[in-house]
Amino acid sequence: MKLTIGMATYDDYDGVYFTVQAIRMYHPEVTAETEILVVDNHPDGPCATALKALETHVSGYRYIANGEKEGTSQPRNKVFSEAQNDYVLCTDSHVLLCPGALRKLIDYFTFHPDTNDLLQGPLIYDNLKRFSTHFKPEWFQGMYGVWKDDDERANDPNGQPFEIPMQGLGIFACRKDAWLGFNTEFRGFGGEEGYIHEKFRQAGYRTLCLPFLRWAHRFDRPCGVKYPLAWEDRIRNYWIGHLELGLDTTDLDTHFQDFLGKEAYRGIMENVILPIVKSYMTKPKASVIYIY
To answer: Does residue 164 have a pLDDT over 90?
Structure first.
């Protein structure tokens, strides 16, 4: 085998089921070269038994119970640490890949066996026509990163890879030994986009858009999101990421003051962020600027 296709999940059996079966039904040419790894971040939840049972039905499927409930970043790290292959594609548990994408990704790794780059591809919208190749590095509604409409360099799925500043993390691929990892202090949801891309850049590597690596993502959740969402977690992750990488925190600070209001943000700063800031002040890369 060459490629591990790994996904972290939290009470999303339907998403996992259809993503896994779509891989095996519509990409059968890569079955012998791939494993599917599912990291369940709620193994005590209602979906665990059914997720585990897929091991008996799906060739190359492997289930791992992750009971620490650490959010989205640490289970993604575990996808890489538990992968049994040299190359890893990490995907959300509700993503569909365009036909041929996996075959071409394996071929890309075959021709670039020592690559240290982070590899991504265009998001295909629900009309299956419009796509976005990357995120603009801007703050918007409590998140860093705004979808950028199609870059003409990706019009041809067989076009050449090109460098992008960042992209949504619905799918991303990397050589296992080149994975730099999300900060182990991250918790909950958010703060990963932009952070991991800058981490690769600071190490001297790139984030590339591979035009063939096209993916559709289920965004709507009419039955609600099952995992907890807390602004404290998201803001905490952004601050930890900025401090780790030595980034100026002015825009981060200003955005959340404006978005949440100064009083609400002040409470998060005093109760959550300031203890973290103090612990980073002795680290040489820390560059901290915050305002009230």
So the answer is: yes
